[in-house]
Amino acid sequence: MFNIPMSISPAQSSSQADIALQKFAPDAHDTTYTVATYLLDISDWILGFVGLSGNKVAETWVYAIVVLAISMVVGYITKWIILGLLRRFGKKLSSDLYSYLTGEFFFTKLCRMIPALTFLILIQVTLVETHTQVAGLLTKLTLLYVIYVTGVALTALVSAIWKHIDAQRNTKHLPLNGLIQLIKGIIWMVILIIAVAIIVNKSPGSLLAGLGAFAAVLMLIFKDSILGLVAGVQLSENDSLHVGDWIKINGTDANGTVIEVSLTAVKVLNWDKTTTSVPPYSLVSGSFTNYRSMQLSNTRRIQRSYVIDYDSILPTTPEMLESLRKVPFMDEYITKKLAQKAAGKVEDVNNSEGLVDGTIDTNLGLFRAYVRMWLDASPYVSHDDTCFVSTLQQTENGVPLQIYCFTSTSSWLPYEAMMDTIFEHISAMMIPFQLIAYQAASGRDTILEGFVTSQDPQKIYGMPQPLFKSNALDDVTGTTNEESGATGTQPTTGSNS
What we know:
Elements: H1 16-24, H2 31-50, H3 56-90, H4 97-103, H5 106-111, H6 113-122, H7 132-168, H8 177-200, H9 204-210, H10 215-221, H11 223-237, E1 246-249, E2 255-261, E3 266-270, E4 275-278, H12 280-285, E5 288-290, H13 292-297, E6 300-308, H14 318-324, H15 330-342, H16 363-377, E7 388-391, E8 399-407, H17 412-429, H18 443-452, H19 472-477, H20 481-484
Antiparallel strand pairs: 1-2, 1-5, 2-3, 3-4, 6-8, 7-8
Helix pairs in contact: 1-2, 2-3, 3-6, 4-7, 6-7, 7-8
């Protein structure tokens, strides 16, 4: 309620307007006094036109309606002028902050205060002794609207400033959206406290002091928000999570890209286009995998194994070594290894001449050396990262041959294509080395066994490799059957029977 100074004594008058103006007691040159006089005259004219002249209650409400209409007109005109000037001069601004403020309709929301403030100023003329309750009600309603519009404008301002900071300075895409939500929550809590103070005619300070008694209740109500805020600060401080990171959260089906981090949820867009939301605190209290470092390195790991059948692992013979010289990379390797062996050197690991790890004693050792040399020459493999070919603990199915390397890209589709190319080549190159990858026997293998004794094995498609008489190396190196003196057709893949 505004306190209106009284500098003159109220005169006896039958007009509510005269009494109100005497209470207002402005200077003769006061613009507000002139406007109020004009509006009160309009109210008296309307009352006289309908035959209610002298009715104090009617005059008060008619004046309020007239003031409301005038305030809305003044607000619309002022808003039109302000927004027009902003549009005209805003185009000359190079800062993107103005565009963010415009996008959040900050100026439009701010201009909504103008009609309310105009109404609040002019309505004070109705503060007369006989209508204090009506004037107080109108003033409270107007003040509530003003603080609500203020809250809307402030949250729009916070959003625009955050977008500006996020675009210009948050280059790491830290999950700070939760902090912005916290600031907005504080703004609305303050607005709510002020609104309650206006309604109950109490000081906002006394209400804030009383909130201490409800601290436990507030902590219970806002438990998730508080935990989310703490988790967001920890994730930001430790640089554990950015918007746009690919993460996998253990114990959930979340496996995809982070699209939003708020006070209450971390939203992950999974690879199957579904969205998973998890509480931020679960990332801090539990565990998750972040693939950001892999993406930044522009490499991606390959770790796969072939299970080599025991029966196909053979000691090398001079004839086998001679035939394998036709395989790329192997001629020079075999020559140098034989020379070292003749000199009494056995350096199958950390070779002094820079040869890759491997041995010429078995076909599997030669194959390990070949695969490593082929990977070193491949453009699909990163040559700055770890790369090796080794055997793992043997199993009942055979000896696992492990290929461990990194591709030259971390992009998903190229990674899959590169991995396909690598392992298709490795699968085909097992044949010249007389190696067989284990695969479980099927009914087809049983049927083929029945044809072996009654049919020419060379005419059976898909016959297991050892039954063929053709030289598999000729097909790899381009030698024809006539040139090698072999007969029969080259098998595609073989299975153990």
